Structures are given as C-alpha cells and as structure tokens.
Structure to design on (942 residues):
C-alpha cells in the first residue's frame, strides 16, 4: 500500500493508505481526528470540510493521496493553546450549533468565507456562501449570525 | 434571576467539545477487534425471495460471515414491533404485518434488509455483499397512499386485505353531520401532506458487541431513547434479558423523531456479534441508506371540511385522512396519524362538533413514523388551511375569522379527547400582527406589484399537545408503555452534583438547561453540575426525548428529585445548627436559621451527610434522591406564525421576506436555546412547504429522491431570518410551568407558508412543496384563465 505524508494541524504525519482511501477516512481512521464528519455520500452536506493548503475542501471527495505533502487543518487544529478561535467563540456566543454534527464543517467554511470575502460580511453573502453546508437543526439563523460575528472579531 | 438560573440566556456547556471536534458520536467509537457490517438490500419494491446464495461472498477476502433471515429465525429472535395498538371503528385491533429484521420470504420496499455481510473492513464487507446472489421474483408494487386500498392493487402483506392496517375514527359523526346540515357556508379542501425524510445530519450507527464470558451485550447506537431501545430489544425481540444488555447513545447528531425507533440494523449488529463469537460489529449508515431505510414522515391524503354559520362561527369540522404506514409498522407509527393528529383538529378554536376518520394503509415504501411534530403538523395544516380559505371565501379578514372562534375559557374540553389547560390565543395573534406590521401589508403588496412581484401573507395559529403523557391516558389509547420520566440527583460529598436523566439530548442543550435548574434550586455554580444521560448502565430506566417532552416531563422529574434532596439537606442542616426545621431557610445555596447568624452552605451539608458523624436520628447517610414524574395532562404550546412571501412571476421562485413567530411555551428556562429550537423547527416546516418531497416512482416503486442531490434540503439561502416574540401562560400541570418548544416551528410553518403563497397567487390549488415549477405553472394557469 502506498504511504501518504502530510502535515495535519502542524504535525507531520504519514500512513499506509489504499489508492481509494479518502482524506476524511485517513483523518478519522488513521489519525483518530474524528471531528471531521461524514454526513452524506454526494459531497453536498459539508460536514467534512477541512482546509488543504489554505483552501476549504470536502474531505469526503478528496483522495488522501492527493493531499500528499499538503498542509491540512481540521477542526481540531483551529483552537490555539486551549483558547477557542474567535470564529468558534462566536458560534458559542450566538448559539450557532445544536447537535454539533455539522458544526466542524460550518466553522471551517466560515473561516474560508472570511479569507475570501473579508471580515465585514453581509447576511446575503454568508447565506449564498453556505450553499455547500447543510444544517438540519438551527435553521441557519444563528449560524449566519455566528459567522458574521466571528468574522468581525478575527 | 441569577446569571445562570431559570430564565437566563446561558451559553451552552456542551459547546466547547463540539466546536473543537471533540464530540463523541457513535461513529467516532471503535472497539478492539471490530468488524464491519454491510447490508444487502432489496433493489425491488416488491419481490419474492427465491434463493439466497452466499457461497461466493463467504469466500471473498476479509469476509467473516454472511447472515440471513433464516439464521435470525434459527436463533429464535422476534421481529421488529410497533408499540402502539390502534383499534378499528368496530373495536377490532389493527393488523400489523410481520417485520423480520432480515426478510425471509419477501421484500416489501426498495432497501428492505435481505442479508448482512460482516467483514474485516468496510470495503471487504461491501465487496462481499456484491457477491451475495439473491434470486428475486419481481412482483407489482403500490407506493401511493391514495392507491393502496384500490381494487386490484398488490397486497403488501398477504394476509392483510386492502392493504389496510386500520380504519379508525374519532368524534361524533351524527352530530357533526347535523352541524354541517345547518351551515351557511362550507369550505372543502383536498390536502396532500407530502412525504418527508427527517435527515438528521448524523446518519444512524449501530455498534454491537457481545461478551461470551458474561453473556452480555453492549450496543452503541444513535438513539433518542436508549432505555426504550433496550426494552424492545430485550422484551420483544428477545436479544437478552435487560440486565445483560447495555445500550449507550453518546453524542447524537440530531434525531427529529427518526432515532426514536428500533430498526433492523441495530438488532442485526447486536445479534451478529454473538453469532460470530463476540467480535464487535459496526454499521454506519451512509446517506443513501438513510433515505432508503430511516423511517419517513407525514404522507397523508386528506379531505377536510369546515362548516360556518353566517357570522363566521365554526359549527363543525369533518376530515377523512388516508395515512401511509409504508411496508411495515415502525415503532410508534400507528399513533402518529391517530392520537397525535386527529386529537388536534380543534386547533385554537371552539368547535363543538368534530368527526375524523383515518385509514392507515400499507404500501411498498419505507416505514413512516414520527417526524418532528408527528401528526400535529398535519393537523395544523388541515385546520389552518381551512380557516384561511374559509376567510377568503366569506370575505372576512383571516385574523378576524380566527378571533371569532378562539377558545378563551380554560380548561377547554375539545370533542377530540384533548383538554386544553391554559392559553391566550388573542395575545399571540395581537403581538404577531403588530410585529409583522399586518396593517402595512396592503401597501407592501401594491409596492411589490409595481415591481412585477406577487406578495402574499399567511397566518398559522397552531396548537400542539406535548409531553406525550400521562401514562394512564396514553395507555388507555393503546400505548404499550407509560410515558413518564425519571431523574436521580446525586450530590457528591463536596457539593458537586450529577443529574442522571432518562431524557436524551441530541442537540437540545440539556446539559445546560437542566444544569440551570439545579443551579437555580441549589444555589451552586453551573460548573459544579453535570448531566448524565444516554447509557442504560449509568442511568435508571427512562423514556427518552421526543414530543417536546424533556422540559415538561424530564425536568419536572429532576425538580421533584431536587425537592427530596433539599428536604433531606434541610433536615441535616437543622440538626447541625440545632434549630427546628421550620426555622431553617434555604436560599442562594445557604441554609440559615431565622433571626440568627447561623448559616451552612449546601456543600457543607453535603459533606456532613457523607461523613455522617453527626446525623439526625433515623436519617441515612448520603445525599442522593430519585424521582419519577408522570404528568396529569399533556402540555399545550400554542402561538401565531405569520409568513410574508414575494413571488417572482417570471421564475416562480418564492422568497420568504418576513417571518414572525409568537409562541407561548409557558415559562422559559433558557431563551437562547428556545429561540434556536424555534428557528430550526420553522426551517423544517419551510422545507416541507417549499422544497422537500420524498418521491417514489409510482410504477417501479424505486426511490427517486435518494440523496441530497435529489431531495431538496433547505440551504441557508432558501431561508429567512426570523423575528420571534413570546407570550406566557404558565403550564398548570407541572411545577416549572413549562410547555415544550421543540416541535412548534415545524408544526406552524407549513400552513403559514402555503397560506402566504396562495394569497400571493390568488389560487388555492398548490400542493406542497410549492416548488418554483408548480408556482410558475399556477401563475401561467391564472394568466390563461384571465385571458379567456
């Protein structure tokens, strides 16, 4: 089996994978980073969003081998020194999560939106940008508020 | 009010682990020596199983075992059950078709479970499953609720004629018919309540493990009610006695009803672990399997009529509903279109005469059971569509027609079992109309028209019955269990507290809300309170979370246990301070003796209880109390939602431009969490009204909407922000005064949306979901009619 090597949340890691192993499987099964979730099998729900070389990708439709040599950030790598990142803190302050299952993907997508669209985000912008992330609990109201708030505090 | 007590907007204790990726969901759990299950599922809606040949699969690399329904039967395991028995109009019991966890003779819906392949890895199990050779003899299928009872339709269960599970009725037929005979106006509607898929974001998981030495089973699963799952697996399916069966439901990623039920997969994984000698067996549903096999929701065809006198007073309501049960009766399926539906057909209104008939039918589709609201959204849709259309037909303002018929005296006994305990329907309507600027609507409509947009407004004045208790009442209606709740409050020697609750949190924030109650009552910081749930080995028997019951029933049990803790602590404190109990006060976490400076903190009393060097006579050491709570009535949350839409006539796209919700949930423990529940409920209701539909091909019975590519889950840009308001009439049937808030939005929203859409279009003939295609066609039809 081929060996894949990448940097995940600041740590160099490597592992045996099959050609068909998905990045999400590598993260969850090889590295036990279970914060990245799988909520669908058609790349629609976004529970699996991680950052690869600074870009948000759906790790359920990315081959682990294609991330060879990449710098990967998962939800576990967002908080620093035990302090929530401002985006995470905003989700908590604005009740932007309920069951928590879509939350890692929402936070990672939110960070990516800020990176691409800046810190002053309109509600319509956030709603349009979240088209690749599904939440069934919150009705999005507080997720939109959380991302707006988190962005302004970054 | 303290910063963390009842009524405080406390941020959630559970959030940090979810926000940092450290939640512990079922699929995050792996056991040593674990195997993986992959199910062989029926590709046909209806077929006879001629032969299953597993020889090739068994030899496939990494395959540990291939198991079928014959193996299940050999081990004497019972089939899946429905725990609520409904009687027909003539008093005879409903007909429940057999529901084996793995099909033996026939498959009855696409995705029906035929065999399971256990592999060293998921990939190997899946590859093995490809090699299981199942010979089917395909048979005709019926999937549409309206066709199931027709002559010549294939039977889902050979022994059940006309595919009819039951023909049930409620109310007085003759009196209602007489009321209709006297009516000045009758409004009649044909209503389809579209079939939905709950789709919590976390798919279901079952991880079964058998320890041969102890003959003990452990099941990790995505359950809203692990104790009920254990009860069913033990007492009905016959897996093991309860003391040899532990069910753990850790962090669960949403449920919305679909995780109440005991399904084939958890039964099979648990049993298979024993069958293969004790290695754990894990199954994680993929989303496609969830669409095929999770219990679906709704799927009613209804004809409904409302009789009015010349003053717009409602004289009677009549309804006939056909409800789709799918191929098998799921755990609580039979109760949904009966006691959770027709008992709410009085709405917020004083209706002297109601008669409803419900026919439940089998079809070759996945089982249908409770989905957020469960019966009550269907009832609200019937009542609120009738009211809105009647107002339009008689030229009365829709708010005014509602007002003429509101129940204003409580308690109010409806003709359909429910006795409303309290409420103020004028208050919620007034506040909602003010917040929605109802007076300014006609100006907004004109302004929109100038821009080529069709603007409409719709009301939905819902009422629901929550708690799904008292036990004796539900028992008399056919429930196989009591629906009380349990709690144990364990005070530790240093004064920290663990609460063991039979409720289960899968997004509702119990770890915070329940801790607020304890903090408020015992005067200890929130951080010193832990809520324990979801493990049958840790927590005493409980009934779980559904029907918006965790506040009204679950928290009341906690409150009663706190009463007992407080009483014992007071006794000990009085003894230690050498005062009579009647002179000792408890406030802010301190016991004090009236008129003295004597004081003992709650933690000091707890320590004294465990050290037990100086206890009052006849008092046992320790400080730990349990309670069960069985309420005296359902609770009745109610409110008014107003939806305002703007439709683009060119594209048929409906945009919700304003949503106003005013709800009366009684006392509110944490407004932030309650608002979140309302938001989410509305979103699911809007999904039903505008985007979601579970569709089977009427000829082949194939599921057309089998993924998020085909089934339109509402996204952030399909939904508005919501304006929320609250009125309060305290619930009299529990000491906290709470009513429940989890389902309100999903119950109220569909009628509000469709009332708004039909108002904008000027036609009533729009079925849910009101997709752009349907709306655009309605606009074209209107234009054509106007031209003629």
């Amino acid at each position: 089996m081929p060996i894949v090597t990448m940097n995940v949340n600041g740590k160099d890691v490597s592992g045996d994978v099959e050609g068909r192993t998905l990045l999400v499987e590598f993260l969850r099964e090889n590295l036990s980073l279970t914060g990245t979730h799988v909520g669908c099998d058609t790349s629609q729900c976004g529970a699996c969003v991680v950052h690869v070389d600074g870009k948000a990708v759906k790790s359920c439709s990315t081959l682990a081998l294609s991330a060879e040599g990449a710098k990967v950030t998962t939800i576990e790598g967002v908080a620093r020194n035990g302090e929530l990142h401002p985006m995470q803190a905003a989700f908590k302050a604005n009740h932007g999560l309920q069951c928590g299952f879509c939350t890692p993907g929402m936070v990672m997508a939110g960070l990516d939106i800020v990176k691409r669209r800046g810190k002053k985000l309109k509600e319509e912008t956030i709603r349009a940008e979240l088209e690749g992330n599904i939440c069934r609990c919150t009705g999005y109201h507080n997720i939109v508020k959380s991302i707006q708030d988190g962005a302004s505090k970054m | 009010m303290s910063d963390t007590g009842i009524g405080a907007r406390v941020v959630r204790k559970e959030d940090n682990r979810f926000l940092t990726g450290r939640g512990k969901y079922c699929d995050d759990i792996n056991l040593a020596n674990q195997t993986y299950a992959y199910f062989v599922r029926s590709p046909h809606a209806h077929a006879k199983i001629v032969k299953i040949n597993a020889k090739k699969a068994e030899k496939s690399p990494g395959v540990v075992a291939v198991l079928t329904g014959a193996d299940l039967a050999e081990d004497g395991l019972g089939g899946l059950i429905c725990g609520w028995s409904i009687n027909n109009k003539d008093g005879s019991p409903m007909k429940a078709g057999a529901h084996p966890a793995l099909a033996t003779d026939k498959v009855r819906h696409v995705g029906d479970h035929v065999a399971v392949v256990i592999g060293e890895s998921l990939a190997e199990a899946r590859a093995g499953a490809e090699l299981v050779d199942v010979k089917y003899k395909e048979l005709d299928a019926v999937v549409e609720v309206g066709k199931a009872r027709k002559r010549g339709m294939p039977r889902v269960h050979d022994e059940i004629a006309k595919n009819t599970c039951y023909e049930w009725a409620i109310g007085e037929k003759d009196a209602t018919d007489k009321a209709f005979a006297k009516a000045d106006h009758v409004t009649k509607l044909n209503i389809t309540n579209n079939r939905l898929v709950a789709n919590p974001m976390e798919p279901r998981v079952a991880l079964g493990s058998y320890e041969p030495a102890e003959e003990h089973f452990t099941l990790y699963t995505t359950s809203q009610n692990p104790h009920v799952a254990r009860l069913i697996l033990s007492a009905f399916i016959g897996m093991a006695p309860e003391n040899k069966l532990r069910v753990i439901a850790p962090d669960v990623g949403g449920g919305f009803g679909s995780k109440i039920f005991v399904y084939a997969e958890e039964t099979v994984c648990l049993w298979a672990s024993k069958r293969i000698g004790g290695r754990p067996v894990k199954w994680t549903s993929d989303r496609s399997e969830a669409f095929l096999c999770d219990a679906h929701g709704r799927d009613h065809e209804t004809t409904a009529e409302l009789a009015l006198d010349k003053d717009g007073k409602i004289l009677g309501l009549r309804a006939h509903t056909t409800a789709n049960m799918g191929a098998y009766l799921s755990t609580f399926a039979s109760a949904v279109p009966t006691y959770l539906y027709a008992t709410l057909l009085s709405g917020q209104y004083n209706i002297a005469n109601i008669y409803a008939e419900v026919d439940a039918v089998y079809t070759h589709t996945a089982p249908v059971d409770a989905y957020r609201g469960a019966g009550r959204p269907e009832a609200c849709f019937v009542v609120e569509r009738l009211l809105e259309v009647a107002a339009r037909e008689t030229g009365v303002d829709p708010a005014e027609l509602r007002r003429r018929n509101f129940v204003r005296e409580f308690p109010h006994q409806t003709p359909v079992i429910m006795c409303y305990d309290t409420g103020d329907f004028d208050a919620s309507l007034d506040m909602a109309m003010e917040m929605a600027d109802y007076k300014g609507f006609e100006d907004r409509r004109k302004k929109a028209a100038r821009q080529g947009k069709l603007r409409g407004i719709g009301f939905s004045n819902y009422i629901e019955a929550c708690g799904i208790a008292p036990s004796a009442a539900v028992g008399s209606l056919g429930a196989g269990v009591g629906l009380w709740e349990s709690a144990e409050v364990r005070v530790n020697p240093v004064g920290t507290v663990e609460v063991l609750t039979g409720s289960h949190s899968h997004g509702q924030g119990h770890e915070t809300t329940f801790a607020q109650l304890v903090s408020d009552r015992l005067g200890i910081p929130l951080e010193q309170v832990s809520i324990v749930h979801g493990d049958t080995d840790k927590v005493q028997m409980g009934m779980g979370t559904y029907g918006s019951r965790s506040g009204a029933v679950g928290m009341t049990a906690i409150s009663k246990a706190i009463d007992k803790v407080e009483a014992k602590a007071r006794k000990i404190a009085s003894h230690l301070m050498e005062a009579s109990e009647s002179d000792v006060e408890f406030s802010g976490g301190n016991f004090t003796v009236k008129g003295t400076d004597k004081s003992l903190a709650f933690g000091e009393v707890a320590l004294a209880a465990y050290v037990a060097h100086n206890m009052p006579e006849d008092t046992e050491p320790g400080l730990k109390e349990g309670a069960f709570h069985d309420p005296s009535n359902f609770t009745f949350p109610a409110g008014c939602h107003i939806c305002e839409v703007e439709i683009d006539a060119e594209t048929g796209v409906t945009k919700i431009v304003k949503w106003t919700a005013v709800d009366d949930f009684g006392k509110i423990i944490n407004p932030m969490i309650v608002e979140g529940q309302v938001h989410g409920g509305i979103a699911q209701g809007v999904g039903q009204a505008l985007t979601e539909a579970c569709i089977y091909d009427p000829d082949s019975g194939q599921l057309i909407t089998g993924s998020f590519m085909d089934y339109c889950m509402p996204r952030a840009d399909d939904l508005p922000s919501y304006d929320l308001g609250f009125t309060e009439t305290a619930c009299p049937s529990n000491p906290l005064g709470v009513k429940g808030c989890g389902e309100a939005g999903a119950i109220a929203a569909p009628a509000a949306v469709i009332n708004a859409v039909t108002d904008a279009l000027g036609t009533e003939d729009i079925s849910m979901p009101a997709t752009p295609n349907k709306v655009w066609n309605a606009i074209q039809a209107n234009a054509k009619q106007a031209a003629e």
About this structure: Chain A has two domains: 3-77, 86-152. The mean pLDDT of chain A is 97.
